[in-house]
Amino acid sequence: MVFKSENTTLNFVDGVGFLTFPALSELGFVNHAFSTRVGGISTGEYKSMNLNFKRGDKPENVTENYRIFCQAAGFDYESLVSSCQDHNTNVRCVTAADRGIGIYREHDLLSVDALVTNDPAVTLVTHYADCTPLYFADPEKRVIALAHAGWRGTVEKIGEATVEVMQERYGCDPSDIIAVVGPSIGSCCYEVDTPVYEKFASLTELKPAYFTKNLGHGKYLVDLKQTNRRMLLEAGLLSINITISDVCTRCNHGLLYSHRASHGKRGGLVAMMSIRP
C-alpha cells in the first residue's frame, strides 16, 4: 500500500490506521481522526475497520471496532455522539447528556448531518464512504464541529449552516475558525450526470467553472472539496485557515472505503473530533 499526501498524515497505532491533519494537530486543544479500513475485526466486504452499523455487518463487530479505534486514536468510547445522516442540512448542538447516541444508544433524531459542541465530555462522530467531511475548530471560543457534505448537502450549503450555528450559539467569529475539508472522492473520480451537474451550476455566486468540468455526452466532473472550500470562504472563513485534504477515497480504496469503487459493497468510515480537557 502506497499512501502519498502533502497535507494528511497516515498514522498506525497498535495496528490501527487513521488519518490526521497537521492544520488541526497544531491547534493543541483538539483531538481528531479520520478512520481507515485497517485494524478492525470485520470480515468480507466490511474488512476490517467497519464503523457503520447500517451496512449489514454484525453489530457486535462494529461495536468492537469502535472500541479498538477509540483506544488507538485516543478517544473515550463512552463519550461518542453520532450524527444520523440523510443528506440534509440539520445541525445539532450536543453535550454530555447526548453521550452514546447512535453508538450504544438509539438515535433520538432522524436527520442530523452536522454536530457542534463546546463540551470536552463528548466526541463528535460523522460517517463517510466518498462524501466530504468538514472539520471545524475555533481556538478562541474552544468550539468544534463536524459536518457531512455529500453532493446534496454541499449544494444546500451544510458547511455554511454549520458556521452559522457556531456563530449564533457559541459566539464564534468565522475569521477565527480553522477548517479542514477532509478525504472524499476527488475531482479526478467524481463523475456525475446532467441533473446533478445542474445543481452545482446553479451556485453562480461561487463561479461553477472552478469546480465543474464538462466531459461531453451529458457527463461532468465535480470537485466537492473545492465547492465546499468556496462556500466556507463565502461564510467568512479566511483562505489561510482552510485546508483541503489531497486524499481521494476512490483512488485510495484499498485504504479507505469508497462507495463508488466497491459498487456499494463496503463498510463505513468515520470522522471523530473532541476537545481536550
Summarize the structure.
The protein has 277 residues and is of the alpha+beta class. The chain has 7 helices and 15 strands.
Overview of the structural elements:
Helix content is 22%, strand content 26%. The chain has 277 residues and is of the alpha+beta class. It has a single domain (9-187, 224-275), classed as CNF1/YfiH-like putative cysteine hydrolases, CATH 3.60.140.10. A six-stranded mixed sheet has the order 1-2-3-15-7-4. Strands 5-6-9-8-10-14 form a six-stranded mixed sheet. It has a three-stranded antiparallel sheet with strand order 11-13-12, covered by helices on one side. The model has no long low-confidence stretch (mean pLDDT 98).
The total number of structural domains is 1
| Portion of residues within helices | 10-25%
| Broad structural category | alpha+beta
Largest β-sheet summary = 6 strands, mixed
Task: Count helical runs.
Answer: 7
Backbone CA Rg? 17 Å
Cα shape: globular
Beta-strand share of residues: 25-35%
CATH architecture: 4-Layer Sandwich
Q: Encode the helix/strand succession as letters.
A: EEHEHEEEEEEHHEEHEEHEHE
Distance between the termini: 36 Å
Q: Kindly report the name of the CATH homologous superfamily.
A: CNF1/YfiH-like putative cysteine hydrolases
Pick out the low-confidence regions.
none
